[in-house]
Amino acid sequence: MQALVIVAHGSHLNPDSSTPTYDHADTIREVGAFDEVRTGFWKEEPSIREVLRTVEADEVYVVPLFISEGYFTEQVIPRELRLDGWDVADWDSDGLSASHVTLTADDVPEKTVHYCGPVGTHEAMTDVIVRRAESVTGDPNVGEGFGLAVVGHGTERNENSAKAIEYHANRIRDMDRFDEVQALYMDEDPEVDDVTDYFESEDIVVVPLFIADGFHTQEDIPEDMGLTDDYRDGYDIPTEVDGHRIWYAGAVGTEGLMADVVLERAADAGAEIGDALELVRERTRATPQAGD
C-alpha cells in the first residue's frame, strides 16, 4: 500500500486557508492514485505532528504545499514528522532543486517516508501559472497581446523566496507565449505596486505565487496595484489602471491543476500513479480548449 500526505501551513485566523489543500486532496482521491490520501497542517487540525500515525500504508509520500524551500520545509515539517536522520544537505539543493529523500520516522519506524521538495519549485508549477492566466481571462489561448506578472512575497530573510518566482517567470518567458513576462514582489524591488510601470502591453495578467487566498492576495495586492482603494468594496476583472487592463488572478494555489504538481512530486519520489496525471489535467481544465 502507498499513501499520500499533503502538508500545508493552514491558519487559525483564515478558515479558507486550508480549502485548496482539501480540494487538491479530494481531486487526487478521485483519480485513485493512492490507497490513502491524508492532509496535515501547521496551524490547524489535523496537525503535521500526528498525521503519520493516521496512515496505514507502509510507503508514505509527503508533499509540502509550500512555495519555496526554507524554514518550513527544511526545519518545521521534518521536525514535526520526527524524520529520523533528516539533514537538509541530503536534498543537495541550490534552493530550487530539492526532489526527495527517503527516511523513517521515530514514532512510526515501520513505515518508509519519502519526504519531497515543495510544490512551488517543481517545473510543473509553471503550467499551473499559465493555466491560472487562462482561467482568469476565460481564454485557453491567452498570450498574444498580453503581459504576465508572476508575483511573490519576497523577503531578504530567505533568498529562496525570490528564486522560485524568477524561475517560473523565466520559464514562461522562454515559452514565448506572452508578449512580456515580469517577476514582481510585495516586499522587495521590483514591487507589484508599480505593476503598470513594467509593462507596455495594454492587458496584464497578474498571478500571485501563493498557496491560498488570504490577507496578502485579497487585501494587500489589489490595493497596492490600485484595483480598489478598499478591498471590501471589491473590484472588476479586468480593472483599468493607468491605461492598462489588470486581470488579477488571485492565489495560484487555488487552481485545480495544482493537484497535478502534488502528483508529480510524489511520482518523482517513486510513487506509482498510473494515468493519474492525465486524469487530473483533464478534470481540472477550467477553460475549453480550442476546437472543443
Overview of this structure, please?
It is a single chain. The chain is of the alpha/beta class. It has two domains: about 1-120 and about 255-285, Rossmann fold (3-Layer(aba) Sandwich), CATH 3.40.50.1400; about 125-255, Rossmann fold, CATH 3.40.50.1400. The chain is about 30% helix and about 20% strand. The strands form two sheets. A six-stranded mixed beta sheet has the order 2-1-3-6-5-4. Strands 8-7-9-11-10 form a five-stranded mixed beta sheet, sandwiched between helices. Helix 1 (about 20-30) packs across helix 7, helix 4 packs across helix 5 (about 160-175) and helix 7 (about 260-270) packs antiparallel against helix 8. It starts with a strand and ends in a 9-residue tail after the last helix. Residues about 290 have low confidence and may be disordered. InterPro entries: CbiX-like (IPR002762), Sirohydro_Cobaltochel/CbiX (IPR050963). This is Sirohydrochlorin cobaltochelatase. It holds the Pfam family CbiX.
